[in-house]
Amino acid sequence: MKIGFIGSGNMGGAIARGIVKSGVVKGEEVFLYDVNPAASEALARDIGGKAVKTAAELTDAAQIFVLAVKPVYVKDALRACGDGLKDKAVVSIVAGLTGTALARQLPAGARCLQTMPNTPAMVNEGVTALCEENTLTEEEMAFVRRMFESIGRVFVLPARLIEAESAVAGSGPAYAAMFIEAMADGGVLLGLPRAQAMQMAAQTLIGTAKMMLESGRHPGAIKDMVCSPGGTTIEAVRALEKGAFRSDVIEAVVAAGEKALAIKRETEKG
């Protein structure tokens, strides 16, 4: 299936590289359009794809499209594509753009799907939500699932849970990065060189996550494995609990979810 990318930035580029590297499509089946031609040309060289000069060339070349532009450029990008998207499929990775809001901006007969990938997709360790409420064909949906599985894990969710996924997985890299930074700061305070402390903290999160995902163990069980009676780790856990660590994380996720819902309501007003 020939695929066109409307936008060739970080996330669009990550998906394009992932689908070519994993063999979902061949490089020559990927077409790229960007208002900054240098971006699409560089990505095309990287994956063996084809950069096109106009939106019309893009819509003529492909059957399914990934809308990968910043939210402020959505209207201009879709206007440039115009009726060329009629009877074709558009997959949005634009943050905050609901399927309803996207459908309003597409020509009659165009099919669409809202998705929500997160930034670790750039290293093929992403989380992507696919909205259950969509108008893609079964064949297109299967292709899109394979596409996002090439850059991480995929979850199909009802529209009402997309903002919750965004609050956990979309914003989650920021929470994780803050935790890594704080762990490293603690190590520096205890005398570790910063570069080593940062690597130790980051690798510890990678390893812990891998243990949980591969073993199926509950996070609490993994915590208990490390907490020896009267030991250093249980003392650290006590300090975190005194500071309401878990409650603060829950509140952060809820705050992100509430903000995402507010943005959704605004975009659906049109």
Which architecture of the largest domain does the CATH hierarchy give at level 2?
3-Layer(aba) Sandwich
| Mean pLDDT reading | 96
Q: Low-confidence parts, pLDDT < 50 over ≥5 residues? A: none
**Assembly type of the shown chains?**
single chain
Rg over C-alpha atoms, rounded to the nearest angstrom: 21 Å
Write down the domain tally: 2
Kindly name the structural category. Answer: alpha/beta
Helix content: 55-70%
**What is the class of the largest domain in the CATH system?**
Alpha Beta
- Could you tell me how far the N terminus lies from the C terminus, measured between alpha carbons in angstroms? 32 Å
Overall geometry comes to: elongated
Full CATH superfamily name of the largest domain:
NAD(P)-binding Rossmann-like Domain
Main sheet attributes: strand count, strand direction, barrel closure: 8 strands, mixed
Number of helices: 12
Strand content: 5-15%
What is the N-to-C succession of helices and strands?
Answer: EHEHEHEHEHEEHEHHHHHH
Subcellular location: Cytoplasm
Binding site for NADP(+): 6-11, 68-71
GO molecular function, one term: pyrroline-5-carboxylate reductase activity
Organism: Candidatus Pullichristensenella stercorigallinarum
